[in-house]
Specification:
Length: about 160
């Protein structure tokens, strides 16, 4: 008669569970950080594309094109709109979706909009910086006086 049964002993099962718990404890925080980094990169790229689009439309239309929050006096982390002309509500060219809940988007100036003149240059008298933050992720987009949009803290 065969007395050996197939299976795991209690000790083997506990060791396997301890190893699995250790792996989960290491993987979950790294996964969360990766998800936040990807989300930050995606949202800052959407903003970068919207700013580049506004600049190109200003050049193509040979008129002022701007980007601002869709609702008057709304924060920059809400929905944004790209518009042509002096009236923000007049000719909306594109709508940029709001960023993730918990993320912040701030302008380093008191301007309520970022406007490009008909030559593609920044209509403001100084370069603008847009700071994006989500937990430990931080990104900066600078809009230089010549209208160039770069993912850096200065226009150097």
């Amino acid at each position: 008669m065969n007395l050996h049964t197939k299976g795991f002993t209690l000790l083997e099962l506990l060791v396997a569970l301890a190893i699995a718990a250790l792996l989960v404890g290491l993987v979950v925080p790294a996964y969360r950080t990766t998800v936040q980094r990807v989300r930050a990169d995606t949202e800052i790229n959407q903003l970068h594309q919207a700013l580049a689009y506004a600049r190109l439309e200003a050049i193509n239309r040979r008129q002022r094109v701007g980007i601002r929050p869709a609702a008057k006096d709304a924060p920059w982390n809400g929905e944004l709109m790209v518009y042509a002309g002096q009236d923000p509500g007049g000719n909306v060219l594109r709508v940029v979706p709001a960023i993730s809940p918990g993320a912040t988007l701030t302008l380093t100036s008191d301007d309520h909009s970022i406007d490009f003149n008909r030559l593609g240059g920044l209509a403001a008298s100084d370069a603008l910086h847009i700071v994006y933050g989500l937990d430990q992720q931080r990104r900066v987009i600078s809009v230089c006086l010549n209208g160039r949009v770069i993912a850096a803290e200065n226009c150097g």
